[in-house]
Design brief:
elongated
Length: 70
């Protein structure tokens, strides 16, 4: 069960990031910022933030030193 939760912690944010980037690339007129552009950029940023938090938490629980992570 723990492996499934760990996998889900990485896959779900990646799906959100991919969908957000896909949505942003389909929008026309990105030179004029509209509300949908801001919402899409915030969604992408939140997905990246959640993914980074999960990566840091994963390595922290694993108990590796900074030398072994690099």
């Amino acid at each position: 069960m723990k492996k499934n939760t760990t996998l889900r912690a990485f896959v779900l944010p990646l799906i959100v990031i991919i969908l957000g980037i896909g949505n942003y690339s389909r929008l026309t007129g990105t030179e004029n910022i509209r509300a949908i552009h801001i919402a899409t950029l915030i969604t992408i940023g939140m997905g990246i933030g959640v993914l980074l938090r999960n990566v840091f938490t994963y390595f922290k629980r694993k108990g590796g030193d900074a030398e072994t992570i690099v």
